[in-house]
Amino acid sequence: MLDQTPVYNQGQQKFETSGCLGCHKRDGMGGIVGPELRGIGDASTHLKYPQKSFDLEMLSQMSDNQNLAYIYEAVRFPKAQPEETVMFNFNLSHEVAMALTVYLKSLREYSTGTQHLPPRSLDPLPITEKGKKAFQLFCTACHGKKGRGGVKNPNYIKDTIPSLNRLSEQMFLYKKENQDAVISILSEFGDLLQVDPPPDFPGFFKVIAKFMSVKNIILNGRMVEKKNLGGLAPVNMPAWENTISEEELSSLIAYLISIY
């Protein structure tokens, strides 16, 4: 069984810490930019190769299994076909690409990925740890590890997708004690609007305003500006209002505050 192999485990761990669900769905959970991944293990090559056949050397490396070759090339060389794909090239090594290929191969129509979804923990994890897990599942692919950014967004006026590791600064939370106070409020109340009385530091109303702005962007998405108006559309920030819970949203923002 694939799920009993170290390579599978490596692929699953990579998938669930690299933000793949920011663009793709797995059993209905995730983003809307890319296709649903349940059934990718049965996918016909014509989904990505309408005209051109596989590279013969790559195909031979996959024991002439066209489905494996399709998944491997889509993961490691996403711009091979078609060139206008919105899939980012993460410059994965052969080893990592193979591990992801094995994991994705397991997501068959008749054996869905639901069993592989990370279980929702009943343990009282700190809110920042919950947020970290949500960030790794949904956000890392676009916003970089620990929110450091640097991911190229073709034809985007700012070139790369924004970093998120300076959210504390953008929320006017320059002091560690103020960051901790807001994280504590989110942990206890889930929303800055619910706390009464407000914390004892100046400018908390500005923190609330920025908090609401961040929530709005996550829930409703945002269109980004093209560099070349006649070129391809860059990847926009998708809307998560139908996917993310209030608890996950608060946890995510708390995590982003904590990594400043």
Give the arrangement of secondary structure elements.
Blueprint: H1 6-15, E1 25-26, E2 29-30, H2 56-61, H3 66-76, H4 94-105, H5 127-138, H6 140-143, H7 167-170, H8 176-189, H9 204-220, H10 246-258
Antiparallel strand pairs: 1-2
Summarize the entry for a quick read.
By secondary structure, this protein is an all-alpha fold.
Overview of this protein structure:
There is one protein chain. The protein is mainly alpha-helical and 260 residues long. It has 2 domains: 115 residues, Cytochrome c-like domain (Cytochrome Bc1 Complex, Chain D, domain 2), CATH 1.10.760; 132 residues, Cytochrome Bc1 Complex, Chain D, domain 2 (Orthogonal Bundle), CATH 1.10.760. The protein has 10 helices and 2 strands, in the order αββααααααααα. It has a two-stranded antiparallel ribbon with strand order 1-2. Helix 5 crosses helix 10 and helix 8 packs antiparallel against helix 10. The chain is elongated and about 65 Å long. The termini are far apart.
Radius of gyration: 20 Å
**Strand percentage:** under 5%
| Form type | elongated
Give the spatial strand order of the biggest sheet.
Answer: 1-2
The helix-and-strand class reads mainly alpha
Average residue pLDDT: 86
Termini, distance in Å? Answer: 42 Å
Q: Given the structure, what is the number of helices?
A: 10
Helix content: 25-40%
Number of domains: 2
CATH topology of the largest domain: Cytochrome Bc1 Complex, Chain D, domain 2
Are there runs of 5+ residues with pLDDT below 50, and where? 112-119
Largest sheet: 2 strands, antiparallel
Please identify, by name, the CATH architecture of the largest domain.
Orthogonal Bundle
Helix-strand sequence: HEEHHHHHHHHH
Q: What is the total tally of β strands?
A: 2
CATH class of the largest domain: Mainly Alpha
